[in-house]
Design a protein that fits this description.
heterodimer, A: 885 residues, six-stranded mixed barrel, 54% helix, globular, B: 105 residues, alpha+beta, 4 helices
Amino acid sequence: MSAPPRWARWLVAVTAPPRDRDVMLGDLDEEHEARVAAGDARGARRWYGRQALRSVGPNRLRRLREGRRGTHDYGRGGGMETLTQDVRWAGRTLVRSPGFAATVILTLALGIGANAIVFSVVNGLVLNPFPFPEPERLVGVGAAFPRAGRELTFWESLSTAEVQDVGQGATTLERVVAWDMGNRQIAGEGPPRNVFTGFWWGDALRTLGMEPHLGRGFSDEEVREGRAVALVSHRLWRESFGADPSLVGRSILVGGSPHAVVGVLPPGALLYGMDLWTVMPAGMDAFARDRRQFQMLARLRDGATLEQANAELEALAAGVAADHAAAFPEYVGWRLQARTWNDINVGILRPAAAVLLAAVTLVLLLVCANVANMLLARSSARRREMAVRSALGAGRSRLVRQLLSESLLVALVGAAAGLVLARLALGGVQRVLDSMALPVAGNVAPDVTVLLYTAGVAVAAAAVFGLLPALHAAGGDVREAMAEGAATGSASRQRLQRGLVGAEVALALGLLAGGGLLVNSMARMGRVDPGFDAEGVLTARLTLQWEEYGQDGIRAFFQRLREEVGALPGVTDVATTSQFPPRSFLRNRFWIEGMTLESGGALPLALTTVVSPGYFKAMGMQIVRGRTLETTDVSGGEMVGVLNEAAARRWFPDRDPLGARLKLGGPDSDEPWFRVVGVVADTRNRGLDQPTEPELFASQQQAGGGNQYFLVVRIDVPPRSVLPGIRRAVASLDPDQPIYAVQTVEEAFEEGAATRRATTLSLGLFALFALALAGVGIYGVVAYAVAARTREIGLRIALGAEGGRVRRLVVRQALVPVAAGGAVGLALAMVLGRAMEGMLFQVRGTDPWTLAAVTAVLAVVALAASWIPARRASRLDPVRALRME
Amino acid sequence: MPTDALLGTFEMVVLLAVVRLGGDGYGVTLRREIEERTGRDVALGSVYATLARLEEKGLVASHEGASTPVRGGRARRLYRVEPAGLRAVEASRRVLSRMWEGVVG
């Protein structure tokens, strides 16, 4: 089978008049086929090619002739023909002025690209963070215990008894599962590694609505009997098991005990980086009613709404309170609440997402104003062209449409370039996101939604920046336009340009103010004293196996590890702790001896941290009263504890805490009494932007049933240089013991501020871009105005006006739209600042200093931008200026 | 467009081809007819350009015909001569033969 040459067919298709295109292609195919059938395939191809080439001329002539007479409108495809004509004409116009086109396209690419980037990130993190079907029906249930000082939380929020209360009582929920999270050591290929593990009651894949990548989820029987079965994450399967499909059905060691792998999770089901799912070995009845360390996940039953579920949960909570408040006083006034999984996990990002989307839209508007200005500036030349075209019979609507086609073409090319930029930038964003422990998969690669959004943005932008100049250029009087010189321009255009500059200034000021407020917040946060010496402290986490070590073994291990690490060169102090600022999170209720609880008052609640002696010194925390925890405080001796100042202020407002006794739990708990021996200075234990929480410290030598501790090492050399030494020290004690979560305290603070920093950085960049655009816009308009007034200025100089006067005249006139735009911009800044108040730190949304500073910056840029053309004006040679035109 | 204006040579050739094929002529056959009679491999683009002009002058008319697989499903467009076309052929011949009289051929 021989086919006609492809190039020739293409040539015919492109050159043939639309009406005859199909019949011509058909005729050529038919003749070609006949010649092939006659046995001369090569000759047939040659003939086809010749035909195509020789038809170009006649086709072209004919289209010109018919186009001129307008007869091309008969038959099919008339409208399409006009459109392609418009687009082709637009393309030619742009190619003829490549510098102009490049500037416009680059500006648009930056504006549209910024939109694509922000939208991609928002789409991947906030709008569609999870791949689960019907995300609006996937809910978590959280609890608030106002009496115990516990706000609504969805993490470590419920006890198993409460999960059962909800699971059995709520008719609006189905597929209820609950889980706990922790670290487990697994033996795969290579050295053993710690993996973040979920311990489940139920088949969460069913709740999520996902199919396993391989194998199956947990069966009801496995869950009921607490069997040793496991699901591994897709990434763990790849990294540690070589993506071997035969892993399913095999047994792996989890924490030393064999677990049968029943399946591999799909890539999108990676929750909180849990690489391993196992069935909770204990039944739900094995846990106390107030042991709240579990999370709950469920789906709304068909037809049930979130409001109905919450109404039902409210009633359920009241019932539980009635039954159990006598034994568990925290139930008085407690609350259960369901929220969508998306809300729970990414709700916190929404304000930042909204601000960034708003900001990037303002940037695009500014870009549009700028491009519109460029198009207007160019329209002096174009107006003659338009006039000629309209004199030859083109209607106004046709001209507007042609100009809009040009805008659309530019916008689409800009959008394509913008998408390329976005792809590059998003690659970097993705790498940063991947390195963070996000609750979501966080895939920000541009998808179809992003493409559609970007295309929509481009079309909208084309309409915004194209319409004004198009109407302007296509309107107006032919004779006037023909008579107009290139350097003079209509007053209406200058009015339009000044209006656009005003708009640019307003937008830029709004963005600058937003960026300024965030930068100000960031700076203030940088000046917050963490309350200790956060510099030069390296931390690493270790989890020992209970079964292997037991409580005494764990204490002894960490004791010896501290000695080994303390002997490393460069290490000045070493300690262990169950948590450290800024991410302390473990809280406990406690009771002070002799305290009376006013009815309805909050039960005392504080962060409870178990530390080794030497922790305060290693962290650089100051003892304010009493003494620190000493190595002489050993088990068997009197149990001692230290409070932070916040706890002392809160519960010992008018007496000395030293010597007081307190214990964990309520008044009736069996926990041992601790004597308060010291008060330590407050640290920002919940992050720099959070108030200090009351905190109790106990000694690891006396208390502390935990098996998971952080090693904190103060170092006077580069922190990570001692890491190999630490690893060797750990290996010398237990060769199979991995250390993980290696981080300096400073990095931990930075991570806590990551969203804030990303938002600040983005908005700051947008603001700078806006400032640059506004500067260019002002410069363009003033330069144009100067050019238009060359003769007048020349005359003034000839009549003796000094350079300074001319400069002032030009600048003063330029600053009128700047001032007007500035006023509008201040109003915009106020609105934006109000909307951002939740994201600010120690700064009001209408902070006068920030507003004054950004206004000053903008004023300087505006002055500079108008000064350059003003200076040129003052140096005009009057003779040449007057001779012009 | 006055139909009694003289046709150009190629217009004449194409119009005669349409007449010769008696209403069944379309691109392929018309082009072949011309090639066979004149010995010149004419470009299909020229044929269609001329047909369009003739149609505009009301000398020929066209309608869509059947399509065949060989044509990739594209329809043929069949041309037939209009009464004005026949008159134009006649007129041209009369004028030309009168002009030829006495010219050494």
